[in-house]
Amino acid sequence: MNRVKTRTSKTGEIVAYSEGAIRNNISAVEYCRTSMAAISGCAAGILGLSGTLGFLFYFLSVFVLWLLVLGKSGTQWRKYFINRKNLLTNQFMGGLCTYVLFWTFLYGMVHVY
To answer: Is residue 5, in this structure, part of any structural domain at all?
Structure first.
């Protein structure tokens, strides 16, 4: 069921959001985040990053993806997402698990065996 959510902006006007559209946008971002975690985990494993440097690589790739999504949505990001903070922090740990899975697998395949 699609519902329209509203909130009051700083100027006092009521802003309406389509719940279905917001869910679709967040779903697309989650797909990008999962794909980015897998690809950057593969890159980190192949490059032989280990320890803190490997985790810093994940944080950097999450931040770059966040900037790319904000750049794609342009200055009108409020049309597509409710706030920017959720784009950066939503499903952070799920992406980290995917990253570590691919990172350790490729690291083991390339540098151990």
So the answer is: no
